[in-house]
């Protein structure tokens, strides 16, 4: 029986499903009824130290199971062995297990169905009396949750933070304005008496708001996309585009300027300790070309001096000697080399090796 029990524990989802099926049947046999069998199995598994996910059953089944266990007293060994053998035989016959419910099916099909189909099914899942919207809300990224918590009332925001994992709630709270964050934190102290059904309805409302948002065709926002393009454009093109943007929409142009990172931004955006990492990523011939072009430009010369000052003195001296012997370079070649340096910096940032300093304002 111990070996059969271990097999049962390895299939905890079928255990829950079999119990659920038993709880929904009736029997007039003098032998243990399906409901009694379910109670016997749960009691046996609990006695073996197994965590049985009874809470995943509908509330009425949980109540019926608990009531049945309260009505039962002693079961002889023969009956116990018979019920367990029958139960394990049913488990052995299981060939494939499905998740059960729209929410679980959506999690399984994530990435395999279209965003529009997923949103429609989520709305159906939200309307289900059995669905817990917080199961999905707690899995969403902070950038998806932040606009919702900013738009909601203080009380709803307090409930939302109370339901989220602590680390995610702390990150969200840190992104709220100071006064707003204090009001939400204080409101959390008043959520002790909120009943579960109210919390569930709040979750359904928040999930409905998120599902109502149309799917985005682009992962990055317009500011990031324009900034990324201008990062690798020539300085002439970049300056002309920014002047045009300022004439059309000064606020958008300012956001784009802040998103742009070019060779000339190195002294203000790169920490001195990160320069050696950047230099190691760039081929020395390319670095020499970039430095020659930068030193010949009033705008980029400070960046060249910054790099030379913060790398090893032996390497800096070697590069300076090559720069002196190189002579002038074509503007096109210099811009390409400086673009390579910028690309390497972006790659290091994306890999988490360095962090760009955020510009003020």
Secondary structure: elements and pairs:
Layout: H1 2-9, H2 12-23, H3 34-47, H4 59-71, H5 77-92, H6 102-109, H7 115-127, H8 134-137, H9 142-151, H10 154-163, H11 166-175, H12 178-188, H13 196-212, H14 222-231, H15 235-248, H16 250-259, H17 266-269, H18 275-281, H19 284-295, H20 301-310, H21 313-326, H22 331-350
Describe this structure in words.
- The chain has helices at residues 2-9, 12-23, 34-47, 59-71, 77-92, 102-109, 115-127, 134-137, 142-151, 154-163, 166-175, 178-188, 196-212, 222-231, 235-248, 250-259, 266-269, 275-281, 284-295, 301-310, 313-326, 331-350.
- It folds into four domains: 2-92, no CATH class; 132-212, Annexin V, domain 1 (Orthogonal Bundle), CATH 1.10.220; 218-257; 261-361, Orthogonal Bundle (Annexin V, domain 1), CATH 1.10.220.
- It is elongated.
- Mean pLDDT is 82; it is low at 1-29.
- The chain is built from 22 helices and no strands.
- The chain is an all-alpha fold.
In short:
With 361 residues, the protein is mainly α. It has helices at 2-9, 12-23, 34-47, 59-71, 77-92, 102-109, 115-127, 134-137, 142-151, 154-163, 166-175, 178-188, 196-212, 222-231, 235-248, 250-259, 266-269, 275-281, 284-295, 301-310, 313-326, 331-350.
């Amino acid at each position: 029986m111990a070996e059969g029990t271990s097999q049962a524990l390895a299939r905890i989802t079928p255990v829950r499903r079999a119990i659920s099926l038993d709880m929904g049947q009736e029997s007039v046999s003098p032998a243990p009824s399906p409901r009694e069998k379910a109670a016997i199995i749960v009691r046996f598994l609990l006695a073996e130290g197994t965590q049985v996910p009874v809470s995943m059953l509908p509330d009425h089944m949980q109540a019926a199971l608990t009531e049945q266990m309260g009505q039962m007293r002693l079961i002889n060994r023969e009956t116990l062995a018979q019920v367990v053998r029958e139960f394990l035989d049913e488990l052995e016959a299981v060939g494939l297990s499905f998740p059960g419910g729209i929410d679980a099916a959506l999690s399984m099909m994530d990435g395999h169905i279209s965003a529009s189909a997923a949103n429609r099914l989520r709305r159906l899942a939200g309307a289900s009396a059995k669905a817990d919207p917080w199961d999905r809300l707690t899995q969403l990224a902070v950038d998806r949750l932040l606009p919702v918590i900013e738009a909601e009332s203080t009380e709803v925001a307090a409930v939302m933070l109370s339901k989220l994992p602590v680390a995610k709630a702390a990150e969200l709270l840190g992104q709220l304005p100071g006064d707003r964050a204090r009001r939400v934190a204080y409101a959390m102290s008043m959520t002790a008496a909120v009943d579960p059904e109210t919390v569930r309805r709040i979750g359904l409302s928040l999930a409905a708001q998120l599902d109502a948002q149309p799917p985005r065709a682009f992962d990055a926002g317009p500011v990031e996309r324009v900034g990324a393009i201008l990062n690798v454009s020539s300085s002439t093109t970049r300056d002309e585009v920014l002047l045009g943007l300022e004439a059309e929409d000064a606020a958008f142009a300012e956001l784009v300027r802040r998103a742009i990172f070019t060779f000339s931004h190195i002294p203000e955006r790169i920490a001195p300790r990160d320069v050696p990492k950047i230099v190691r990523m760039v081929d020395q011939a390319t670095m020499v070309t970039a430095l020659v072009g930068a030193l010949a430009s009033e705008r980029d010369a400070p960046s060249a001096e910054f790099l030379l000052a913060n790398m090893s003195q032996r390497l800096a001296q070697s590069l300076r000697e090559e720069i002196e012997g190189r002579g002038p370079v074509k503007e096109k070649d210099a811009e390409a080399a400086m673009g390579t340096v910028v690309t390497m910096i972006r790659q290091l940032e994306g890999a988490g090796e360095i962090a760009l300093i955020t510009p003020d304002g």
